[in-house]
Design a protein that fits this description.
Blueprint lengths: L3 E6 L12 H4 L7 E6 L3 H7 L5 E4 L6 H6 L7 E3 L9 H7 L3 E2 L6 H16 L2 H9 L6 H5 L9 E5 L3 H10 L5 E5 L5 H6 L3 E2 L2 H7 L2 E4 L13 H5 L6 E4 L8 H9 L5 E4 L19 E3 L10 H17 L33
Parallel strand pairs: 1-2, 1-3, 3-4, 4-5, 6-7, 6-9, 7-8, 9-10, 10-11, 11-12
């Protein structure tokens, strides 16, 4: 039996089952630790984790009940994702348990995907494809004669974390003017990226493209409502590669149905996967992908190695790199070994 037990629910997260834990274990070389799979029900996992030194959170929601049931010896809850909505972070903070995520692993992929949705929505790629396949060749050009050129239009970013900054960098060569709203980021940071700081109202009313990047925090849940879509241009395109629950979907559906906005490019939805009764699935003015923005051949190995590095730090008694509730660290028994950037966390 290993000295340290890393408890995790059975099964994979994000990807198909199988493959083992070689990537996670690589950074743990030299540490007498073992990743052990346990039950996926709340009571079963709580009982299983009573001798756990750290928890690798995947596959299930780590509710307040599970977090409160973890032993005092538990040094942290480690996630292999950017989002932390699968863990009750408030409960973990109350228990003094650090929660870590992967804030800087999939930035480039998500930014690429956001630009893909922007360009595909603007140039009506799906409509053009259908016209060709349905022998409506001559309809393609007249349809595009109704939209403006991309150069000179305005892209508005809601939240200005790492992904939004990468999107801004990609948008500049296309000739887009970029503005952003984020009450948690210094305006000087935006200016350094060539982005104009604005209020939410200014972003909504001025932008030809609105790209949502707010994290799935309790404060951001349902952030964009019907009233916000009413403030947007009738010709505007709404992009969301962040989190579905940050948008009240009923308001977005109404905006698309009644022509308050022109189009939406969505990688995320309020409920995933969507039910057959979701009107969005039948809308011709929506471009969809299946919450795949972060996916690439690098996805699994990179995030798993990041998980392994965080596990190794915690088991060595050190502060983790990507703590989303850093207030607990000062009162923990873990040692501070390097400055921690306050930009780390769920708004990344």
């Amino acid at each position: 039996m290993a000295k340290f037990k890393i408890a995790t629910p059975a099964g994979a997260s994000f990807t198909v089952a199988g493959g083992g834990y070689d990537d996670e274990m690589a950074p743990l070389e030299g540490i007498d630790a073992e990743i052990v799979e346990g039950p996926i029900d709340e009571d079963g996992f709580i009982a299983f984790a009573q001798d756990a030194d750290v928890v690798y959170a995947k596959g299930i929601r780590f509710s307040k009940k599970i977090v409160d049931g973890l032993p005092a010896r538990c040094r942290g809850i480690v996630l292999g994702s950017v989002g932390v909505d699968s863990v009750d972070v408030v409960a973990a903070t109350e228990r003094g348990i650090p929660v870590t995520n992967c804030p800087d692993t999939f930035i480039e992929e998500v930014a690429d995907h956001a630009m893909m949705l922007l360009l595909a929505s603007h140039r009506r790629t799906l409509e053009q494809d259908r016209m060709v396949r349905e022998n409506r060749w001559r309809e393609g050009r007249p349809a595009l004669l109704q939209i403006p050129r991309l150069m000179g239009q305005t892209l508005g970013l809601i939240a200005f974390g790492h992904v939004a900054r990468a999107v801004a960098k990609r948008a500049k060569p296309f000739g887009l003017r970029v503005i952003a709203y984020d009450p948690f980021i210094e305006e000087l940071v935006m200016v350094e990226h060539g982005v104009l700081p604005c209020s939410l109202e200014e972003v909504l009313s001025q932008s030809d493209f609105v790209s949502m990047h707010a994290p799935a925090t309790p404060e951001a849940e349902g952030m964009l409502m019907e009233k916000h879509f009413r403030q947007m241009k009738k010709t505007a395109v709404f992009i969301n590669t962040g989190r579905g629950p940050t948008v009240q979907e009923a308001g977005l559906i109404k905006a698309l149905q009644e022509g308050w906005i022109a189009h939406a490019g969505l990688d995320v939805l309020e409920i995933e996967p969507p039910g057959d009764n979701n009107p969005i699935l039948g809308m011709p003015n929506v471009t969809l992908s299946a919450h795949t923005a972060s996916a690439s051949s690098r996805f699994d190995p990179a995030r798993k190695r990041h998980v392994g590095r965080e596990l190794a730090l915690l088991l060595n008694g050190k502060w983790p790199m990507s703590c989303v509730n850093p207030a607990v660290l000062m009162d923990s028994k873990l040692r501070r070994w390097q400055p921690i950037s306050m930009e780390r966390g769920p708004n990344s």
